[in-house]
Every structure is written in C-alpha cells, then in structure tokens.
Amino acid sequence: MSKLLGYFTNGLIKENPTFVLVLGTCPVLAITTTGFNGFGMGMATAIVLLLSNVMVSILKNYIPDKVRIAVFITIIATNVTVVELLMKAYTPDLYKALGIFIPLIIVNCLVLGRAEAFAQKKGVFASALDAIGMGFGFTAALTLISIVREILGNGSFFTIPILPAGAHPMLLFILPPGAFLTFGLLFLVMNTLKRKFKI
Amino acid sequence: MAKMESTLMNMVLSLSLISMLMVAGLGYVYKITKGPIELADKQKEVTAVTQVLPAFDNDPIKQKKDIEGLTFYMATKGGLPVGCAVKTFTARGFAGRFDLMVGFKPDGTIRNIVVLDQKETPGLGAKMTESSFIDQFKEKNIATFKLKVRKDGGQVDAISAATISSRAFCDGVQKAYDLYMKNFAKPVTAIAGVSDTTAVKGGKHE
Question: Structure pTM?
Fold first, then answer.
C-alpha cells in the first residue's frame, strides 16, 4: 500500500516533473502568463499523461522493443488529439488561449518519458497513480509559475485585479524573459526548501 | 505473458493493430465532438455580431456575404437597415494575424468593436480587448476621425508600449470601413435594395 502511495507522491515533490526532472519546459515557459492558462495547460497534460500511461501499461506485452517509441508516439498523439477535440467542443475559450501548445503536448518529453521509464515496466494501477502524481505535480508547478508571473507582470490574480489603481506592474514578468527569471527563482526557492526539510 | 519478440512479423502486426485501434477511437471522438464544436464556433459568431450591432430582427448570420476576404453581416429592423457587422482581420499584429468584428451604422459610424482572435502579448498588445482602448472608437466616423495612432499623426491613443498592435488594430478597422463604404454605403438606393431583400428573407426565417 505504501509502495502504491509512493508512486503517487513521487511526482508531486520528490520527482516533480518541472522542478526536479525539468521535463517539458516548453509550455512551462511559454504559456504561464495567467493563472488560468497555467492550470488549464497542466490539466490537459495530466489527462494525456493518464490516458497514455494506462494504455501503454495495458499494451506493454504486445509492443516489441524495437518499435516501442513509434507505438508510444501513436498512442500519445491519439490522446492529445482526443483532448484537443474535447477542449474545442466544451472549453473553446481555454482552447483559444492555449492554441498551438495543445498539439505540442505530443512532443512533451514528460509524457513520453513516463511511458518509457515507468508505464512500460509497471502494472496498470501503478502507472495510473504515477500519471496522476506527475500530472498534479506538473499542474501545481505551472499554476505556481503562472500566479507569480501574473501578479508581478499584470497585477492580477486569476484575472482579478489586485493592485491599487495607478500602480504599474512589472511588464517584464509577462514577457518571455520573465518566464526564465520566475522559473529560475522558483527553482532556487524549491531547492532551498527541499534541503531545509530534507525531502 | 512474456514480452513480444522484435521479429519483423511482430513489429508490423503490433504497429498496424495498435494504429488501427487508435484511429478507431479517434474517429469515434471526432464524431461525437463534431456537433458541439460547430455549435461553439457558431455561438462565438452570434455573440460577436450581437455585441457590435444595434437591436435587429433579421438573421444576419444567414445572410452573410464574403467580399475580398472579409465577411459582412447585414442587420435590419422592420425592413430598414440598422447596421452592418464586418469580420475583418489584419496581418500586421505583433504576433501575426488577428481578427476583429466591427459594427457600423448605415452611415459608416463605428458602433462597437470586438476582438475575436488574437495572440498579442498579454499585458501589452492584448489590452486591445479591453474597453479602455476600444471605447475611443465608439460613435466615431472614419470620414472625420483620423484612424491612425497619434505617433503617425492620427487621433487614436495607442496602448502604451504596444504601438505595433494599435497600428494593426487601426489597419483592420480601416480595411473593414473601406470595403463597407465601397460595397454597401455609397449609393443610397443600393442600401435600400439590400435591405429589401434581406427583410423578405428575414421575415421568412422568423
């Protein structure tokens, strides 16, 4: 039981995909401009990750080693397209905001990485737990970066303005360089905290 | 069960069967989301048209006309033209193309503008979706209002630090105005002609 729980919490902190594994940083830097974008992108990736991990784990005995990457990509691409169609149909505004970064989940190395390093070796249930843990870890990291960037760069928290009228936010943080700065600074905070609490 | 060997036969079989399975799943999802996607697209169009036009009683979506890449939605009330919504675009945005919906009164005065699709920088160019920028165009007629940012000698207050986006916005509106005036507003009889036919069609639709 504790082993299964370990699969789940692994992705949250100890092997957080963004702050520890540093996988799939393209969306981390590109779309984290508002809290909603960060959260939406994280959830979309988490759903793709869950579907792919489960499918890879079910099919793992029918995938010959030499073509495994081709099969994984086929499975991931299908799941991304499914998520894309669903978002287009039911959350068109979010789809519009995320745009090209939804199809790009296909080449997010987090998804392929988990299929390769975890799902193709472990059982279905463990793979699902791993995907949920990793998905939550990714979503939390994206949302955190988005919140910091949105507050500093746009003066709002999930689009609710929080700065007093007349105060100017630091635009830099909304622009691409701000993504790198925020990412780096949060990295520092995370590593300091981890060392302090010995996680 | 042991893992499959990587023989040619196994590889071909595995890859084709899994691909077929995936395609079948994808086809199914495509089928069930097709309706809702079309509905969402149409809803977006209807909302934008309603926002930029005064009250109307025909169905402008049904009677839309495409001229030189722009879409014109004629609105009438009781058979009389009350305005026209124009879906226009510009390719000069900071992040490429964006789309606008501009509502004109019959004489060419701007009633309202809605930004449909834009990828401009959040916090800078993206501020063009806010009323603080758009309000300055309301009730302005481009015949008398110089549709250019102040830097270029016009009367439009550009968004600070986003002159390129503001210029592109003006470019899109200007394009809509020019085509609207050229095709619909010049000969007064032409407006009446268009409104007559639309009124009949509109009546049938209701």
Answer: 0.78
